[in-house]
Amino acid sequence: MELLVTLLPAFGVLALLFVFAKNAWVSKQEVGDEKMARIAKNIADGAMSFLKAEYKILAVFVVAVAILLYFKGESEAGSNGMVAVSFIVGAICSALAGFIGMKVATKANVRTTNAARQSLGKALEVAFAGGAVMGLGVVGLGVLGLSGLFVLYSGQGWEITEILNVLSGFSLGASSIALFARVGGGIYTKAADVGADLVGKVEAGIPEDHPLNPATIADNVGDNVGDVAGMGADLFESYVGSIIGTMVLGALIVTPDFDGLGAVYLPLALAAVGIVMSIIGTFFVRVKEGGSPHAALNIGEFGSAGLMLVASYFLINGFIPAEATDQLAFGSMGVFYATIAGLVAGLAVGKVTEYYTGTGTKPVNSIVKQSETGSATNIIAGLGVGMMSTAIPIILIAGAILVSHHFAGLYGIAIAAVGMLANTGIQLAVDAYGPISDNAGGIAEMSELPSEVRERTDKLDAVGNTTAAIGKGFAIASAALTALALFAAFMKTAGVTAIDVSQPKIMAGLLVGGMLPFVFSALSMNAVGRAAMAMIEEVRRQFRDIPALKAALEVMVKNDSDMSKASEADRKIFDAADGIAEYDKCVEISTRASIKEMVVPGVLAIVVPVAVGFIGGAEMLGGLLAGVTTCGVLMAIFQSNAGGAWDNAKKMIEEQGRKGTDAHKAAVVGDTVGDPFKDTSGPSLNILLKLMSVVALVIAPSIAITGDSAYAVEDNVKVWIDEDGKKHELKGDVAMFTEEKGNISKEVKVNMEKNDDGTVKATVTTSITKDGETTTEDKIFEGTEEEVKAKIEAMDEVDVKMEIKGKKKTIKVTKGVEEEN
Known about the structure:
Blueprint: H1 2-6, H2 8-28, H3 34-75, H4 83-116, H5 120-154, H6 160-204, H7 216-250, H8 262-282, H9 293-319, H10 331-357, H11 362-370, H12 375-388, H13 391-421, H14 424-446, H15 451-494, H16 504-545, H17 547-558, H18 568-576, H19 583-597, H20 599-616, H21 618-655, H22 662-703, E1 717-721, E2 727-731, E3 734-741, E4 744-754, E5 760-770, E6 773-783, H23 785-793, E7 799-805, E8 808-815
Antiparallel strand pairs: 1-2, 2-3, 3-4, 4-5, 5-6, 7-8
Helix pairs in contact: 2-5, 2-8, 3-4, 3-6, 3-7, 3-19, 4-5, 4-6, 4-7, 4-14, 4-15, 5-6, 5-7, 5-8, 5-14, 6-7, 6-16, 6-19, 6-20, 6-22, 7-8, 7-13, 7-14, 7-15, 7-19, 7-22, 8-9, 8-14, 9-10, 10-13, 10-15, 11-12, 11-21, 12-21, 12-22, 13-15, 14-15, 15-21, 15-22, 16-17, ...
């Protein structure tokens, strides 16, 4: 295990070598004919122009925040200016993960189309290879960045708490880029999708992805910027956030090996070995002609999960002692059970999501049925399905929290998130395969390839829709556990012992936190609405004002969208419109709108926790995080599943050959409403939860309750009233209370200090005054913090709870003294 710790960065390098090899293989595959190459180039150019515009804005943001973090780190104890370096590295890794995924996805899409001309198996191989580059790129950059910085900082002679505080800047950088990428990409893709669907399919009556539709290229670009780069940044941020949250909580657990830091190294080790298991899983994904792509993907994903479970057992037993300790009541097996709880919950939430959003399921069939009576009943049915779909996932997540906490405390909850995300490499590969297949189908349609090619790409795309829905469910579940792990790390760092909702300040924070997901969703959905309006107007203008397009549309309507029936004259008119649509105008509209609209939601997620923390204090910020996590998880599940169900209800009606019917038009409207639900605001909420928790963790040392004195509130005095109504005061470095009964009074003082060798010394002074005479007795306890705490709590006279940090401590009197007359 010592060798594994030393080689942690090498696992990140291994993943990146695999990425380069897969990318080279994809690049060698045939592109196809000239028309296919031209369409693919338009998509790739649009995707890269979006990334270029987005990263220009984000570069300014990263530099500005890094400067603020540098001065913050330099001015407070327990941190330093290197937190700015961590932030920049995290931001670069997150942006690079999105760039790598986008680059290979725009290569793999047209090559998947061309491979589909040969066989289904070959098309799956190319599409999945493109997804694997995204998946392994994310985990490789995450492990390499985190472990590399940890090794660097460990060599500086800092305390572990300072190392982890500085390292948390990496997660903040990843979260910041992820939020902007998710929101910006979601706005882009849905503005194009809504415009293309409403004008092309509903108004003009032409098929999806038809080359006459000017918004088609922007729509295909959107699949990449939203579902590839956006999802990659999302899971990258969950991945590193869960690891850092677990490391912070692990620092409170002392292990006999690894210089006492076994619990800190464990999440990094699990992530590193998860890379190997994900690579092995990719070799299981194979399908023959006529076979099931879904089954092939499941074999790879679940096979990798099984291997990871076996590896986790040995890793946990290697890093965590088998015997029970004060922090881990069940020892290493308790941590293993917590890991299983996280992994099972993640897979189960994904399968529940598949049930509520999959083609042919009871919930989706109910939406299909209610589409017969119009758009209103379709939307009512979709909202109902989305709301009902929150129940089982929340129960599963809650169960995972309870089980993991029972077996391993707060550390167990955090390690459950790591266990859920250990297979991120192959999970993201399966997810990124979806938009690549979707693009492949679009290219096949625009290139007018034979019907069997489109049938193969549609089969891959249908599976991709299911894997995307599962991926979204997985992302939500992991976001909930990751946010909770970061929340627990924040409370430990800030010295917050409990979130008491009976306190007005905390309740106010709770309500504000609960409100934020609604405001955030409104901002992103309104942004999609505004951008879509501009897109719709542009598509209508081109259909109206470009003669060749207008003539070609008339020919399409005349031949009922089937150009195989067209006369030679009609075919000539149709062919004359090839490439006439001004695709770049639509790409520009989506790019401009998404870059402009992503700023306010992104800044909101960062500014609000900082403002609440410094104005209302650490406990109010804790209330804010509790509120935003609770409402955010529910809203994310509701929106993602409602949108997915609407989408597949529309697809079911199309598969039944009922395109153009009233039911189909109602389903298209429902799908249009659901698009920003499932691809913009819903997924973005995952990042909102984690980003706010990471921001809180980074500022925690600055707003911690324990400062230079034990209680740095209310003029260094905390008042406690016992059950008899007597007042006791806790002041400075001394915990003191006095009780009087008749002519007898008793005073107990507890002085705490930490010795240079790490042990703790406590002096308990009891003074009894009776009839004017005072007697004093001192009791001195020395040993570890746990030993001293146990001895003091065993005293009849006083019951205290303490948390010692350096030479400082927090002492809370929880029970008074009773003296008989």
